[in-house]
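Record type: ASSEMBLY
Status: queued
Input:
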Amino acid sequence: MSDRVSSDQAISPNARPMTNGAGAAAVLAAGIGSFLVAVFAILADQIASIKSLMNFYKPTGPLSGVTTCAIVAWLVAWALLHRRWNWRNVAAGRITAAAFVLLFLALLLTFPPIADLF
Amino acid sequence: MEITVRGFWTMIHGMGFGALYLMACSGALVELFLHYRKPLGPEILIENEKFLGIYLTVMTALAWLTVLTGAYIIYPWYRATPPPGAASLATFPQRLLMSSPSTIAWHSIGMEWKEHVAWLVPISITMATAVFLRYRRNLTQQPELRAAVLGFMGISLLAAGIAGFFGAMLNKNAPVQGGTTIHIVRGEQP
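Status: finished
Output:
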């Protein structure tokens, strides 16, 4: 007997149909979280009061607040989007494209010569 | 043969977690690409699917361990401020790099980019693992999510590569060292 299972067999008859909403929520939230790492880093670098606020753990400095805020925002965005889109089919193409744009911007905006333009 | 505690933790962070992530990510990308490329490759066997799920979960743990040890154990040693009138900057890597025009860019570009871009890695791989574990073989029916998993993993490999490259170069130019010395092996007298 083959140990391969077809896609249809993988879904229990009682289970709800597999939708793309939960996956799209995870993808968009990851894009948002990545983008926020860059945004918070720029804000902490450019604005003294935010830099001071981001100093959650003194030995690590503002990096501790920048990353903690971005991670918390990412997880909150993920939870909210998941709650909204779970068990729904959404426009995954556009959502994935938006997530890629945010991720690409994060990659560019964390590069210091570009971040210093702001 | 000996190593300082700071050198040991830097090795665990860079070679233990970071380099292992880079190697694991390359392997996972090839494996996923073979199954999810167009036209779709062979369906993943149940055993392989379970293994891949565990593999991605371990990769996610590695990514988080890398950034957390980097930010909360090594970075404080890297950015430590020397006392006024310190005779040597050898145990203050950031200040050592900033003390010379020929090395300052390793900090102002290298470390400044590395300390932020590295965080894209755990975010990306956590998402990729979560999506894989949720959809497993049904990911073949979700082309957009498939593309997102592969794309984000590709970017995580790039970001980890950037962080790893600058980490290695920073440690070459201004090693994080100090703390208690650990004797690994005592060599014979020549």
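Annotation: Residues 2-80+90-183 of chain B form one domain.
Annotation: The interface with chain A takes residues 43, 45-47, 67, 71-72, 75-76, 79, 108-109, 112-113, 115-117, 119-120, 123-124, 126-127, 130-131, 134-138, 140-142, 144-145, 147-148, 151-152, 155, 158-159 of chain B (CB under 8 Å).
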